[in-house]
Design a protein that fits this description.
The chain is an all-alpha fold. It is built from 15 helices and four strands. β3 and β4 form a beta hairpin. α3 crosses α11, α5 packs antiparallel against α6 and α5 crosses α11.
Protein backbone atom coordinates (compact mmCIF):
# COMPACT_ATOMS: atom_id res chain seq x y z
CA UNK A 1 0.00 0.00 0.00
CA UNK A 2 2.79 2.31 0.99
CA UNK A 3 4.51 1.53 -2.34
CA UNK A 4 1.39 2.56 -4.32
CA UNK A 5 1.11 5.81 -2.35
CA UNK A 6 4.80 6.50 -2.91
CA UNK A 7 4.44 5.96 -6.68
CA UNK A 8 1.36 8.19 -6.77
CA UNK A 9 3.25 10.96 -5.00
CA UNK A 10 6.16 10.53 -7.40
CA UNK A 11 3.95 11.24 -10.45
CA UNK A 12 1.90 13.96 -8.72
CA UNK A 13 5.13 15.86 -8.02
CA UNK A 14 6.36 15.58 -11.63
CA UNK A 15 3.15 15.71 -13.70
CA UNK A 16 -0.08 17.77 -13.20
CA UNK A 17 -2.20 14.68 -12.60
CA UNK A 18 -4.62 16.51 -10.30
CA UNK A 19 -5.16 19.31 -12.84
CA UNK A 20 -5.93 16.81 -15.63
CA UNK A 21 -8.31 14.84 -13.40
CA UNK A 22 -10.00 18.08 -12.30
CA UNK A 23 -10.38 19.20 -15.94
CA UNK A 24 -12.08 15.99 -17.06
CA UNK A 25 -14.19 15.81 -13.89
CA UNK A 26 -15.69 19.22 -14.68
CA UNK A 27 -15.90 18.79 -18.46
CA UNK A 28 -19.46 18.42 -19.82
CA UNK A 29 -21.07 17.74 -23.19
CA UNK A 30 -24.26 19.63 -24.25
CA UNK A 31 -27.33 17.49 -24.92
CA UNK A 32 -29.70 18.08 -27.85
CA UNK A 33 -31.10 16.17 -30.82
CA UNK A 34 -27.79 16.41 -32.76
CA UNK A 35 -25.55 15.11 -29.93
CA UNK A 36 -25.12 11.81 -31.80
CA UNK A 37 -22.81 13.53 -34.30
CA UNK A 38 -20.32 14.25 -31.49
CA UNK A 39 -19.17 10.61 -31.54
CA UNK A 40 -17.85 10.58 -35.12
CA UNK A 41 -14.61 12.38 -34.28
CA UNK A 42 -13.70 9.73 -31.70
CA UNK A 43 -14.56 6.98 -34.18
CA UNK A 44 -12.23 8.54 -36.77
CA UNK A 45 -9.49 8.59 -34.13
CA UNK A 46 -10.16 4.91 -33.37
CA UNK A 47 -9.67 3.91 -37.04
CA UNK A 48 -6.47 5.98 -37.15
CA UNK A 49 -5.11 4.08 -34.13
CA UNK A 50 -5.97 0.80 -35.87
CA UNK A 51 -4.02 2.09 -38.88
CA UNK A 52 -0.97 2.80 -36.74
CA UNK A 53 -1.02 -0.57 -34.96
CA UNK A 54 -1.58 -2.73 -38.07
CA UNK A 55 0.84 -0.58 -40.10
CA UNK A 56 3.65 -1.21 -37.60
CA UNK A 57 2.99 -4.97 -37.75
CA UNK A 58 3.05 -4.95 -41.57
CA UNK A 59 6.36 -3.06 -41.52
CA UNK A 60 8.00 -6.07 -39.82
CA UNK A 61 7.80 -8.02 -43.10
CA UNK A 62 7.17 -5.48 -45.90
CA UNK A 63 10.05 -4.62 -48.28
CA UNK A 64 9.61 -1.37 -50.27
CA UNK A 65 11.28 -2.27 -53.57
CA UNK A 66 9.79 -3.08 -56.96
CA UNK A 67 11.53 -6.47 -56.92
CA UNK A 68 10.35 -7.55 -53.46
CA UNK A 69 7.23 -5.54 -52.49
CA UNK A 70 4.65 -7.85 -54.08
CA UNK A 71 6.37 -11.00 -52.80
CA UNK A 72 6.66 -9.60 -49.28
CA UNK A 73 2.92 -8.82 -49.17
CA UNK A 74 2.26 -12.29 -50.58
CA UNK A 75 4.45 -13.73 -47.80
CA UNK A 76 2.50 -11.75 -45.19
CA UNK A 77 -0.82 -13.06 -46.51
CA UNK A 78 0.17 -16.73 -46.90
CA UNK A 79 3.01 -17.50 -44.46
CA UNK A 80 2.74 -15.11 -41.52
CA UNK A 81 0.26 -16.19 -38.86
CA UNK A 82 -2.86 -13.99 -39.19
CA UNK A 83 -0.93 -11.84 -41.69
CA UNK A 84 -3.88 -11.83 -44.11
CA UNK A 85 -6.10 -10.53 -41.31
CA UNK A 86 -3.67 -7.77 -40.31
CA UNK A 87 -3.41 -6.57 -43.93
CA UNK A 88 -7.17 -6.76 -44.37
CA UNK A 89 -7.74 -4.79 -41.14
CA UNK A 90 -5.23 -2.17 -42.32
CA UNK A 91 -6.92 -1.76 -45.72
CA UNK A 92 -10.50 -1.73 -44.42
CA UNK A 93 -9.72 0.63 -41.53
CA UNK A 94 -8.10 3.06 -44.00
CA UNK A 95 -11.35 3.22 -45.98
CA UNK A 96 -13.52 3.43 -42.87
CA UNK A 97 -11.29 6.17 -41.46
CA UNK A 98 -11.75 8.31 -44.59
CA UNK A 99 -15.51 7.64 -44.54
CA UNK A 100 -15.81 8.54 -40.83
CA UNK A 101 -13.66 11.65 -41.30
CA UNK A 102 -15.77 12.76 -44.26
CA UNK A 103 -19.07 12.33 -42.38
CA UNK A 104 -17.57 14.04 -39.30
CA UNK A 105 -16.37 16.98 -41.42
CA UNK A 106 -19.74 17.51 -43.10
CA UNK A 107 -21.61 17.19 -39.79
CA UNK A 108 -19.35 19.87 -38.27
CA UNK A 109 -20.03 22.06 -41.31
CA UNK A 110 -23.82 21.72 -41.19
CA UNK A 111 -23.91 22.20 -37.39
CA UNK A 112 -21.86 25.41 -37.83
CA UNK A 113 -19.30 24.16 -35.31
CA UNK A 114 -16.54 25.99 -37.18
CA UNK A 115 -17.64 29.38 -35.86
CA UNK A 116 -15.71 31.58 -33.45
CA UNK A 117 -13.66 30.60 -31.49
CA UNK A 118 -13.27 27.25 -33.31
CA UNK A 119 -11.79 28.49 -36.61
CA UNK A 120 -8.40 26.81 -36.05
CA UNK A 121 -10.11 23.60 -34.94
CA UNK A 122 -11.89 23.50 -38.32
CA UNK A 123 -8.73 24.32 -40.29
CA UNK A 124 -6.71 21.63 -38.48
CA UNK A 125 -9.56 19.13 -39.02
CA UNK A 126 -9.79 19.82 -42.77
CA UNK A 127 -6.00 19.52 -43.08
CA UNK A 128 -6.21 16.17 -41.26
CA UNK A 129 -8.82 15.04 -43.80
CA UNK A 130 -6.51 16.04 -46.67
CA UNK A 131 -3.72 14.06 -44.98
CA UNK A 132 -6.03 11.03 -44.74
CA UNK A 133 -6.54 11.26 -48.52
CA UNK A 134 -2.77 11.52 -48.96
CA UNK A 135 -2.37 8.35 -46.85
CA UNK A 136 -4.75 6.58 -49.22
CA UNK A 137 -2.93 7.80 -52.33
CA UNK A 138 0.57 6.92 -51.09
CA UNK A 139 -0.45 3.57 -49.64
CA UNK A 140 -2.29 2.36 -52.74
CA UNK A 141 0.89 1.54 -54.71
CA UNK A 142 2.73 -0.28 -51.90
CA UNK A 143 1.49 -3.85 -52.72
CA UNK A 144 2.92 -3.25 -56.24
CA UNK A 145 0.05 -5.06 -58.00
CA UNK A 146 -1.38 -4.35 -61.44
CA UNK A 147 -4.37 -2.23 -60.40
CA UNK A 148 -2.30 -0.11 -58.00
CA UNK A 149 0.44 0.42 -60.61
CA UNK A 150 -1.83 1.72 -63.36
CA UNK A 151 -4.09 3.67 -60.98
CA UNK A 152 -0.98 5.45 -59.67
CA UNK A 153 0.06 6.25 -63.24
CA UNK A 154 -3.35 7.81 -63.90
CA UNK A 155 -3.32 9.70 -60.57
CA UNK A 156 0.13 11.18 -61.06
CA UNK A 157 -0.69 12.13 -64.68
CA UNK A 158 -3.61 14.19 -63.35
CA UNK A 159 -1.16 16.06 -61.10
CA UNK A 160 0.98 16.88 -64.14
CA UNK A 161 -1.72 19.16 -65.63
CA UNK A 162 -1.35 21.70 -62.79
CA UNK A 163 -0.17 24.93 -64.49
CA UNK A 164 3.51 25.93 -64.29
CA UNK A 165 4.61 23.34 -61.66
CA UNK A 166 2.69 20.29 -62.95
CA UNK A 167 5.64 18.50 -64.54
CA UNK A 168 7.88 19.17 -61.53
CA UNK A 169 5.16 17.77 -59.25
CA UNK A 170 4.97 14.65 -61.39
CA UNK A 171 8.75 14.19 -61.20
CA UNK A 172 8.65 14.78 -57.44
CA UNK A 173 5.96 12.15 -56.86
CA UNK A 174 7.32 9.55 -59.30
CA UNK A 175 11.02 10.11 -58.74
CA UNK A 176 11.36 10.20 -62.54
CA UNK A 177 9.32 10.33 -65.72
CA UNK A 178 7.45 7.05 -65.14
CA UNK A 179 6.12 4.96 -62.25
CA UNK A 180 9.06 2.77 -61.19
CA UNK A 181 10.68 1.34 -58.11
CA UNK A 182 11.78 4.89 -57.27
CA UNK A 183 8.10 5.90 -57.11
CA UNK A 184 7.37 3.00 -54.76
CA UNK A 185 10.24 3.89 -52.43
CA UNK A 186 9.28 7.57 -52.49
CA UNK A 187 5.59 6.96 -51.72
CA UNK A 188 6.60 4.47 -49.00
CA UNK A 189 8.70 7.20 -47.36
CA UNK A 190 5.77 9.61 -47.43
CA UNK A 191 3.39 6.92 -46.12
CA UNK A 192 5.41 5.78 -43.09
CA UNK A 193 7.44 8.88 -42.17
CA UNK A 194 6.35 12.26 -43.55
CA UNK A 195 2.57 11.87 -43.35
CA UNK A 196 2.54 10.25 -39.85
CA UNK A 197 4.74 13.07 -38.54
CA UNK A 198 2.45 15.78 -39.97
CA UNK A 199 -0.68 13.92 -38.88
CA UNK A 200 0.52 13.44 -35.31
CA UNK A 201 1.39 17.12 -34.97
CA UNK A 202 -1.96 18.29 -36.34
CA UNK A 203 -3.89 15.66 -34.41
CA UNK A 204 -2.40 16.78 -31.08
CA UNK A 205 -3.32 20.39 -31.91
CA UNK A 206 -6.84 19.39 -33.02
CA UNK A 207 -7.56 17.30 -29.91
CA UNK A 208 -6.12 19.96 -27.61
CA UNK A 209 -8.37 22.62 -29.16
CA UNK A 210 -11.42 20.36 -28.90
CA UNK A 211 -10.71 19.75 -25.20
CA UNK A 212 -10.04 23.41 -24.39
CA UNK A 213 -13.03 24.86 -26.30
CA UNK A 214 -15.51 22.07 -25.59
CA UNK A 215 -18.35 20.92 -27.82
CA UNK A 216 -20.13 23.50 -29.96
CA UNK A 217 -23.92 23.85 -29.86
CA UNK A 218 -25.68 24.39 -33.23
CA UNK A 219 -27.42 27.79 -33.57
CA UNK A 220 -30.88 26.22 -33.74
CA UNK A 221 -30.30 24.11 -30.62
CA UNK A 222 -28.87 26.68 -28.20
CA UNK A 223 -32.16 27.36 -26.39
CA UNK A 224 -32.94 23.65 -26.08
CA UNK A 225 -29.42 22.82 -24.86
CA UNK A 226 -29.65 25.45 -22.10
CA UNK A 227 -32.85 23.85 -20.77
CA UNK A 228 -31.29 20.39 -20.56
CA UNK A 229 -28.68 19.33 -18.05
CA UNK A 230 -25.36 18.66 -19.85
CA UNK A 231 -23.79 15.19 -19.79
CA UNK A 232 -20.58 14.80 -17.72
CA UNK A 233 -17.71 13.83 -20.03
CA UNK A 234 -16.35 11.37 -17.47
CA UNK A 235 -17.59 8.70 -17.24
CA UNK A 236 -20.86 8.95 -19.26
CA UNK A 237 -19.72 10.46 -22.58
CA UNK A 238 -16.45 8.50 -22.47
CA UNK A 239 -18.34 5.23 -21.91
CA UNK A 240 -20.66 5.97 -24.84
CA UNK A 241 -17.63 6.83 -26.97
CA UNK A 242 -16.05 3.48 -26.07
CA UNK A 243 -19.28 1.66 -26.99
CA UNK A 244 -19.04 3.36 -30.40
CA UNK A 245 -15.44 2.12 -30.69
CA UNK A 246 -16.60 -1.43 -29.90
CA UNK A 247 -19.27 -1.21 -32.62
CA UNK A 248 -16.65 0.12 -35.05
CA UNK A 249 -14.29 -2.72 -34.10
CA UNK A 250 -17.01 -5.30 -34.71
CA UNK A 251 -17.86 -3.82 -38.10
CA UNK A 252 -14.16 -3.66 -39.07
CA UNK A 253 -13.46 -7.23 -37.95
CA UNK A 254 -16.50 -8.53 -39.87
CA UNK A 255 -15.45 -6.74 -43.08
CA UNK A 256 -11.84 -7.89 -42.76
CA UNK A 257 -12.79 -11.51 -42.11
CA UNK A 258 -15.67 -11.86 -44.59
CA UNK A 259 -14.17 -9.73 -47.38
CA UNK A 260 -10.38 -10.09 -47.09
CA UNK A 261 -8.42 -7.58 -49.16
CA UNK A 262 -7.28 -9.13 -52.43
CA UNK A 263 -3.67 -8.86 -53.63
CA UNK A 264 -4.18 -9.46 -57.37
CA UNK A 265 -1.29 -9.91 -59.80
CA UNK A 266 2.18 -8.43 -59.65
CA UNK A 267 2.59 -5.17 -61.58
CA UNK A 268 4.11 -5.47 -65.05
CA UNK A 269 5.14 -2.05 -66.46
CA UNK A 270 5.31 -3.51 -69.99
CA UNK A 271 1.80 -4.99 -69.93
CA UNK A 272 -1.18 -3.02 -71.30
CA UNK A 273 -3.39 -1.27 -68.76
CA UNK A 274 -6.34 -3.47 -67.78
CA UNK A 275 -9.79 -2.02 -68.66
CA UNK A 276 -11.81 -0.19 -66.03
CA UNK A 277 -8.92 1.28 -64.03
CA UNK A 278 -10.34 3.48 -61.27
CA UNK A 279 -8.91 5.23 -58.21
CA UNK A 280 -10.12 4.60 -54.67
CA UNK A 281 -13.76 5.51 -53.99
CA UNK A 282 -12.89 8.82 -52.27
CA UNK A 283 -11.18 10.12 -55.44
CA UNK A 284 -13.86 8.86 -57.82
CA UNK A 285 -15.94 12.05 -57.96
CA UNK A 286 -12.92 14.04 -59.14
CA UNK A 287 -11.90 11.33 -61.61
CA UNK A 288 -15.42 11.15 -63.11
CA UNK A 289 -15.80 14.93 -63.27
CA UNK A 290 -12.58 15.34 -65.27
CA UNK A 291 -13.94 12.86 -67.83
CA UNK A 292 -16.93 15.15 -68.49
CA UNK A 293 -14.89 18.33 -68.84
CA UNK A 294 -14.44 19.29 -72.55
CA UNK A 295 -10.91 19.04 -73.92
CA UNK A 296 -10.89 22.77 -74.63
CA UNK A 297 -12.83 25.58 -72.96
CA UNK A 298 -12.27 28.72 -75.06
CA UNK A 299 -8.48 28.67 -75.49
CA UNK A 300 -7.69 26.84 -72.23
CA UNK A 301 -7.17 23.13 -71.57
CA UNK A 302 -10.33 21.72 -69.96
CA UNK A 303 -8.49 19.33 -67.63
CA UNK A 304 -6.36 22.18 -66.30
CA UNK A 305 -9.48 24.22 -65.53
CA UNK A 306 -11.02 21.21 -63.79
CA UNK A 307 -7.97 20.74 -61.53
CA UNK A 308 -7.90 24.46 -60.75
CA UNK A 309 -11.61 24.40 -59.88
CA UNK A 310 -11.10 21.52 -57.42
CA UNK A 311 -8.14 23.38 -55.91
CA UNK A 312 -10.20 26.54 -55.42
CA UNK A 313 -13.06 24.61 -53.82
CA UNK A 314 -10.54 22.98 -51.46
CA UNK A 315 -9.18 26.39 -50.43
CA UNK A 316 -12.74 27.71 -49.96
CA UNK A 317 -13.59 24.70 -47.78
CA UNK A 318 -10.49 25.30 -45.65
CA UNK A 319 -11.33 28.98 -45.16
CA UNK A 320 -15.06 28.59 -44.46
CA UNK A 321 -14.84 29.95 -40.86
CA UNK A 322 -13.30 33.18 -42.16
CA UNK A 323 -15.76 33.54 -45.07
CA UNK A 324 -18.91 33.02 -43.00
CA UNK A 325 -19.63 36.65 -42.18
CA UNK A 326 -22.18 36.08 -39.38
CA UNK A 327 -20.37 33.91 -36.86
CA UNK A 328 -21.53 35.66 -33.67
CA UNK A 329 -25.13 36.34 -34.62
CA UNK A 330 -26.16 32.70 -34.57
CA UNK A 331 -27.63 33.14 -38.04
CA UNK A 332 -28.14 30.17 -40.29
CA UNK A 333 -26.01 31.55 -43.19
CA UNK A 334 -28.27 29.73 -45.61
CA UNK A 335 -25.96 30.07 -48.61
CA UNK A 336 -23.23 28.15 -46.86
CA UNK A 337 -25.68 25.39 -45.96
CA UNK A 338 -26.90 25.22 -49.57
CA UNK A 339 -23.29 25.02 -50.76
CA UNK A 340 -22.63 22.13 -48.37
CA UNK A 341 -25.64 20.14 -49.58
CA UNK A 342 -24.75 20.78 -53.24
CA UNK A 343 -21.15 19.65 -52.62
CA UNK A 344 -22.36 16.50 -50.87
CA UNK A 345 -24.86 15.71 -53.66
CA UNK A 346 -22.17 16.31 -56.29
CA UNK A 347 -19.75 13.88 -54.59
CA UNK A 348 -22.42 11.17 -54.25
CA UNK A 349 -23.78 11.51 -57.83
CA UNK A 350 -20.35 11.59 -59.48
CA UNK A 351 -19.13 8.62 -57.42
CA UNK A 352 -22.22 6.58 -58.37
CA UNK A 353 -21.76 7.48 -62.04
CA UNK A 354 -18.17 6.24 -61.87
CA UNK A 355 -19.45 2.84 -60.77
CA UNK A 356 -22.39 2.68 -63.19
CA UNK A 357 -20.90 4.17 -66.38
CA UNK A 358 -18.37 1.82 -68.07
CA UNK A 359 -14.80 3.15 -67.85
CA UNK A 360 -13.09 3.63 -71.20
CA UNK A 361 -9.56 4.11 -69.81
Amino acid sequence: MSTIVAKSSFWRERFPVDAVVHFFARKTVPLHRHTIWYYLGGMTLFFFLIQVGTGVLLLLYYRPTAEAAFESVQFIMTKVQFGWLIRSLHSWSANLMVAAAMIHMFSVFFLKAYRKPREITWVSGVLLFFLALAFGFTGYLLPWNTLAYFATRVGTEIVSVVPVIGHELLLFLRGGEDVTGATLTRLFGFHVAVLPMLTTTLLVLHLLLVQVQGMSVPPGEEARAVQRKPMPFFPYFLMRDLVGWLVALGMLAALAALFPWELGEKADPFAPAPPGIKPEWYFLFMFQTLKYVPAKILFLDGEVLGILAFGLVGVFWLLVPFLDRHPEAGGRTRWFTVFGWLALAFIVVMSLLAYVVPQTF
